[in-house]
Design brief:
- There is one protein chain.
- Helices cover 32% and strands 27% of the residues.
- The protein has helices at 12-38, 62-85, 88-107, 115-124, 128-135, 144-173, 198-211, 229-255, 513-532, 564-579, and strands at residues 188-194, 215-219, 222-227, 257-264, 268-270, 278-281, 293-304, 314-325, 332-337, 342-344, 347-363, 369-374, 378-379, 386-392, 405-413, 435-443, 463-465, 475-478, 483-486, 491-509, 536-544, 550-558, 606-607.
- Helix 3 packs antiparallel against helix 6 (144-173) and helix 6 runs antiparallel to helix 8.
- The two termini are 45 Å apart.
- 28% of the residues are buried.
């Protein structure tokens, strides 16, 4: 028969060829399946699912068939959506969106932080203001869209972690799978022949692997071992830590409080809402959550560099206070420094600013004192050039006996350059040459209307400025102990020698900060473990060959390709080889002249 008549040949040889091809294909499929089984559960990552088709399958006729099809369809799509939501890819996307969503909260003024800036932004931007308001950009962290991303991220992480945790626990409690039938197909492989019995080889391999902290057991004719479980544990710890951080952040934002208080030496503060100069809190915060404590500022100490390029830089910057916890707590003394706050429960008291409060005395035309107090001045530069206002609201009468209010615009410099040497700018932050510059007004300060005012500025819209006999504005630069006399018997103002200092304290209460810090450390450790620890499996098979000599095979398989796996397998093979060395040709008694010669142990591990 011509070979062109048909694609197959007849006869015994021709009949055997197709059968041989089928056996080869089935052998390849079996090997691939065994390798897949050997590498199964090396990771707890969920298997990605492709875009589904119809879940309902064939639709049976009638209303019941349509109903059953609809239920199957809804259930199938629901499961698919859940798998997508709980996949790591979607979790990373949500985490990225959360980071993007936080950017407007840092760039745009927030109503919960500074309502005045929000209103100023709306007044200055007639188009962007209403648009930002509708998009919730003035209250980003409480907006619907930010909360939706936050909640979805929670659901995604929890839905991903819970099944993976149970799967990991099951893997940890189980045993490594048995060896594939053909270890030569694995990425790292070595073999040799030995005179030791197979049982002795397996026992030696078991001891070696356990000594190297592998979880090992004997399965049929091979030892199966596994190591690197901390990789998956680190991965789970990392994601659990993310949840802890998110919960702590949310808890802290909802129940936080933050306020500022300026305290002059000799004065004190009690942790009550009315005592704050400025206060803001989370949506679920209650004044009952304020930690009960109080403190008095005894002394503020500030020293500065006198020479060199760092002239004026603070060397000592600390506030000496006495504090007590609760209504009847024992008084204690402490120092509050920059970055060294006073901690009372969940509350921290930070030292944030410092300035001077010159003491002034105001007298009326009869010489009676109507005002005497230390007036805090706000610093304008690093040398503590300061600005403020002296307001006499009650008790003053002018020369005609009419009740009025007085106001003095004030500039204070702790170190004056000297007359004729420039304007009122301080040359050094310490009290080397203090000078107080004043100009006075009389009339109505506008405080009787009940509207809030800035205590460091004067509202002169309903006031007249004092003028001297020449009709010029009355103003003076006073040294400690000097007095400026007001015209027409209106009285006087004296810059007393007692110059006090003030300190500004920020009192914060943010529960969950310790949990957030612990979560951050745990996340770093978990991420390091998942990146640097490799999970791998090793099999050692010892069988008796056709010539009666024991054949030892060792192979390794990792979660991903790694250059260290063949090296580690070589080290393990060397330890096993010490107890089951390669047999010599004289010791071996091959029964088949064509038997494959032994592979010497010196060849080590080979990466296929």
């Amino acid at each position: 028969m011509s070979s062109t008549d048909t694609g197959k040949t007849t006869g015994p040889a021709g009949a055997g060829e197709p059968a041989g091809e089928d056996v080869l294909v089935s052998r390849e499929a079996l090997d691939a399946r065994e390798i897949d089984e050997a590498g199964s559960q090396l990771s707890t990552a969920p298997v990605e699912t492709a875009m589904p088709g119809s879940f309902g399958g064939a639709r049976a006729p009638g209303a019941l068939g349509r109903l059953a099809w609809t239920v199957r369809e809804i259930t199938g799509w629901g499961r698919w959506i859940w798998r997508q939501l709980t996949s790591m890819r979607v979790a990373l996307i949500l985490l990225f969106l959360l980071s993007l969503g936080a950017i407007p909260g840092s760039l745009i003024p927030q109503s919960g932080t500074d309502a005045a800036k929000v209103q100023a932004f709306k007044d200055a931007h007639s188009v962007l203001g209403p648009l930002y308001d509708r998009l919730g950009l003035f209250h980003v962290y409480g907006s619907v869209w930010f909360s939706a991303i936050y909640i979805l991220l929670f659901v995604s992480l929890i839905g991903c972690i819970v099944p993976r945790t149970w799967q990991f626990v099951g893997q940890f409690r189980g045993r490594p799978p048995g060896a594939p039938s053909r270890l030569t197909r694995l990425p790292a492989y070595t073999t040799w022949r030995t005179a030791a019995a197979p049982e002795q080889v397996r026992e030696a391999a078991l001891q070696v692997l356990k000594a190297k902290r592998f979880r090992a057991h004997v399965d049929k004719d091979a030892v199966a071992a596994e190591k690197g479980y901390l990789r998956e544990a680190g991965n789970l710890v990392f994601h659990v830590a993310l949840i802890v951080m998110l919960v702590a952040f949310a808890w802290g934002q909802l129940f936080r409080s933050e306020g500022d208080k300026l305290v002059v030496e000799g004065d004190g503060f009690a942790n009550a809402l009315l005592s704050y100069d400025d206060f803001k809190s989370g949506n679920l915060f209650s004044t009952d959550d304020l930690t009960p404590f109080s403190f008095d500022l005894k002394d503020f100490t500030g020293t500065y560099e006198r020479t060199g390029p760092n002239k004026g830089t603070p060397r000592t910057y600390q506030a000496a206070i006495t504090y007590s916890e609760g209504a009847y707590g024992k008084e204690r003394k402490t120092l509050v420094k920059v970055n060294e706050p006073l901690e009372i429960g969940d509350t921290k008291v930070y030292l944030t600013a410092h300035g001077y409060a010159p003491t002034v005395t105001v007298r009326d035309g009869k010489g009676e004192v109507v005002f005497r107090n230390a007036v805090p001045m706000l610093p304008l530069d690093s040398n503590v050039t300061s600005q403020g206002a002296v307001k006499v609201m009650d008790g003053y009468r002018n020369a005609r006996g009419k009740s009025e209010q007085l106001g003095f615009s004030a500039f204070f410099v702790p170190t004056f350059a000297g007359a004729g040497k420039g304007d009122m700018f301080s040359q050094f932050p310490a009290l080397d040459y203090p000078v107080l510059a004043l100009s006075g007004f009389h009339g109505s300060l506008g405080v009787d209307a009940g509207l809030p005012q800035n205590v460091y500025q004067l509202d002169t819209s309903h006031m007249k400025q004092f003028k001297d006999a020449k009709g010029e504005i009355l103003k003076a630069r006073l040294r400690p102990g000097e007095t400026m006399t007001l015209p027409d018997g209106a009285g006087s103002i004296t810059f007393d020698k007692d110059i006090k200092e003030w300190a500004n304290f920020q009192i914060t209460q943010q529960p969950g900060s310790d949990w957030a810090l612990a979560g951050a450390f745990a996340a770093i450790l978990g991420l390091a473990g998942s990146l640097f620890i490799q999970r791998r499996r090793v099999w050692v098979r010892a069988t008796t060959g056709d010539d009666g000599v024991t054949v030892v095979e060792m192979a390794g398989l990792g979660r991903s390709e790694s250059a260290k796996l063949p090296e580690e397998l070589g080290d393990l093979a060397a330890l096993v080889h010490e107890q089951a060395p390669t047999t010599s040709d004289e010791d071996a008694a091959p029964t088949d002249a064509d038997a494959e010669p032994p592979v010497p142990a010196a060849e080590g591990a080979e990466k296929q």
